[in-house]
Amino acid sequence: MKKDILKLGLALALFAAGACVALAMVYAVTKPTIEGHEARNLEASLKEIFPEADAFESLNGELSADTAGVTVTGAWKASKGGATLGLAIRTLGKSYGGDAAMLVGVRTDRRLSGVRILTLSDTPGLGANATSPTYFVDKASKTTFPGQFKDKPVSDPFEVKNDVSAITASTITSKALTDMAKAAALAGSAWLEKAAAGGM
Amino acid sequence: MQRLWKIFSKGIVYENPLLMLMIGLCSAVAVTSSVGNAVGMGGAMTFVIVFAELVISLFRKLIPNDARIPIFIIVIAAFTTIIDLSMKAYLPELSKSLGVFIPLIVVNCIIMGRVEAFASKEKPLDAVVDALGMGVGYTWVLVGIAAFRELLGNGTLMAAQVMPEAFQPILFFTLPPGGFMVFALFISFNIWLKKAMERRAAAPAKEAA
């Protein structure tokens, strides 16, 4: 019996070790590519939100969100020729299918310059429509779900089905993303105001 | 050769994992709301089952019977993580839209079932052929259901607009209840197909006439 357990444990350990080696190799090979994608995605997202900016300065840890369940995981100050254009804020929140990350741009005139969803693992065909470039919440004007936040004043109520159009049959996704946009908008405009007052 | 063809082809109709064995259904309903996802999921799942069956068949004499389930899981999980990382690196868009369903291949009962029932007893070549048959059987059903649901529920195929602009998408087909209904239709179609093939095999003379 004792010998049996040793044998079983040994077999299990051997297979686990083999799997470990294989995974370590694949991980090492794919890691730079995956990180490259993430960095490029972030760069592209920042550029999309502030197309006219020529420099992005990271402001890690200087902002925080007041809304429960939403955290700020990064912020960048967009500027052109030394003049501040606004802030891009990355928020993390919970949506229907788990964590969702979003990049929100707030301009110095207290309007959103744009919203981009970075990660969302909601149901394909439903909540995932939030990231689809061909899913329109307003078919007439071809406005996508994140697209409707462009130029939205920070002082708006950000209420789904009131001033924000929901994605059909995906109220939880719509609400979660809207809350994240609102939290980022408030945190961003507060920082910008403080910076303006402090002469930064 | 004929023996191998028999092993391969049984996964497509006679022992189709989804429509006949009725295993691995959970993710099948979930990912079939678009054809692109179904192709990606079918491909990922085929990769995992082929390599899992190959490795387990190769080492079948070294796997102690009492510890076989944890060893199967280690092997399946390793290949699932490999395909997950590779898709994240080389097919980031697809990986994003499939999300959590790729890691969930680990607990897909089709792989566990075939590894336990087939690969742990048969020779490597047979196991790979069996895995390919199961993979193709799984993929064609996924793509078929997804085409049906995407076309009627969204008016598109592979994210390209197919239906005329005036077509009002029937959202029901994208939602889970529609998924179950289309699934049931496919099951009955497969049973009809199986019976038709059996009749044909039983009366070849009649068919010729």
- Largest Cβ-defined interface: A-B, 31 and 40 residues
Largest sheet of chain A: 5 strands, antiparallel
Radius of gyration of chain A over all CA atoms, rounded: 22 Å
Q: How much of the sequence of chain A is in beta strands? A: 25-35%
Strand composition percent of chain B? under 5%
Helix content of chain A: 25-40%
Task: Order the strands across the largest sheet of chain B as they lie in space.
Answer: 1-2
Set down the secondary structure blueprint.
The complex is a heterodimer of chains A (200) and B (209).
Chain A: H1 2-49, E1 55-58, E2 71-80, E3 83-95, E4 98-107, E5 112-120, E6 136-138, E7 143-144, H2 171-197
Antiparallel strand pairs in A: 1-2, 2-3, 3-4, 4-5, 6-7
Chain B: H1 2-10, H2 25-31, H3 35-58, H4 68-90, H5 92-98, H6 109-119, H7 124-154, E1 156-157, E2 160-161, H8 176-202, H9 204-208
Antiparallel strand pairs in B: 1-2
Structural summary, described in words:
The complex is a heterodimer of chains A (200) and B (209). Chain A has helices at 2-49, 171-197, and strands spanning 55-58, 71-80, 83-95, 98-107, 112-120, 136-138, 143-144. By secondary structure, chain A is α+β, with helices and mostly antiparallel strands. With 209 residues, chain B is mostly helical. Chain B has one domain (11-197). Chain B has helices at residues 2-10, 25-31, 35-58, 68-90, 92-98, 109-119, 124-154, 176-202, 204-208, and strands at residues 156-157, 160-161. Chain B has a two-stranded antiparallel ribbon with strand order 1-2. In chain B, a hairpin with a 2-residue loop joins strand 1 and strand 2 (160-161). In chain B, helix 6 packs antiparallel against helix 7 (124-154). The longest helix of chain B has 31 residues, at 124-154. Chain B is globular. The mean pLDDT of chain B is 86. The interface between A and B is large, with 31 and 40 residues.
